[in-house]
Amino acid sequence: MHPWNQPILDSLKARLDRLPHAILLHGPRGVGKLELAETMAQLLLCEHKDLKARPCGQCDGCRWYLAGNHPDFRRLEPEAIAKVPPAAEDEEGSEPAPAKRTKQPSLFILIEQVRELAAFLNLRSHRGALRVALVHPAEDLYPNAANALLKGLEEPPAGAVFILVSHRPSRLLPTVRSRCVAMPVPIPPRDTVLAWLNAQKTQNADRWLAFAGGAPLQALEYAGEASAWDRLLKSPSPVDDRENLERLAEALQKMAYDRAFSAFGLPPKYRTGVPAARSARAWLGFARRMGEDRLLTRHPLNPRLFSSELLGSMRDLT
Ligand SMILES: [Zn+2]
After folding, report:
1. If you measure from the C-alpha of residue 96 to the centroid of ligand 1, how many angstroms do you get, rounded to a whole number?
2. Fewer CB within 10 Å: N-end or C-end of the chain?
3. 3-state DSSP: the chain helix, strand, coil percent, rounded to 5?
């Protein structure tokens, strides 16, 4: 877990005796929500007698959790981002599975996963304590999966705690949201983050932190891909794959916001290096549309055609 999120962990620690049965960690991308959620899960599964010493890292509960095999913990993620895709999990000693996968791994959390989770939560805890389910990112629950999860949130099995992680809580079912205790994970103070980025030997930390809107992990990622982003910002051009399409839409959105800021006479927030613009309204509109298009870039489509279209609509404005 990242040091700036310690106060949020402490606030959960202070209420270990009256735990909510569902927690919603929400905040912008790149502030360390997932790592915080993971440490919260460890906190809940730690068996140290002194509540203040949790998570201790030493007890059976902590050791199993850290080794990734605590019997009272489950993690729900889209197959595409899971650390160990289910198909790659082999019995010990068996032959490695041949690459026979024909289906793309899902970008969504599916109803089968929620049903398995429900079956697990309805069992008694192996350790006689809590059972913890981490759902990440909660906005990627397929609609019928979200409805199935809602049943669990409405009538939580005794001793079950749900931790939901979301970058976009507005995209959750309102009924799911209202069943959770919301814990916001904000952008940490700039000085704290810059010190942390410098300790990671990040080049141009200041610039990438601006481009990341203040989110530390996002800044670290951008700095690691600096040349790709520089190229994109300097001369945006059509791309051929989905990953670069996502990047392009993000770059265009940030460039549009910077133009709008400049039209208002404000310093450009993302420091994209675009020239000053005159019409703030037009660029704000473009930035908003780009936000919607960024969601579309996840769906199968023709990246070259789509990126040419995005670039064309930007040229119309300049
Ligand atoms: Zn422990």
Report:
1. 34
2. C
3. 50, 10, 40
- Which pTM was predicted? 0.86
Two tokens, residue 310: 């995005």
CA of 133 to the centre of ligand 1 (A): 18
144 alpha carbon – ligand 1 mean position (Å): 36
Q: From the CA of 43, how far away is ligand 1's center (Å)?
A: 7
Q: Tell how far the Cα of 98 is from the centroid of ligand 1, in angstroms.
A: 38
Would residue 81 count as lying in a domain? yes
Average pLDDT of span 158-171: 94
Whole-number Cα distances in Å, 244 to 114, 207, 304, 307: 32, 21, 10, 9
Tell how far the Cα of 31 is from the centroid of ligand 1, in angstroms. 25
Domain that holds residue 264: 225-315
pLDDT in tens, 247-269: 999 999 999 999 999 999 999 99
Q: 119 CA to middle of ligand 1, Å?
A: 26
Which of 153, 169, 184 corresponds to the end of one domain?
A: 184
User: What integer pLDDT is reported at residue 102 of this predicted model?
Assistant: 56
User: How far does the centroid of ligand 1 lie from the alpha carbon of residue 5, in Å?
Assistant: 19
Whether residue 144 sits in one domain with residue 279:
no
According to the model, what pLDDT value does residue 275 have?
87
Q: Using the mean position of ligand 1's atoms as its centre, give its distance from the Cα of residue 296 in Å.
A: 43
Q: pLDDT band for position 96 (50/70/90)? A: very low
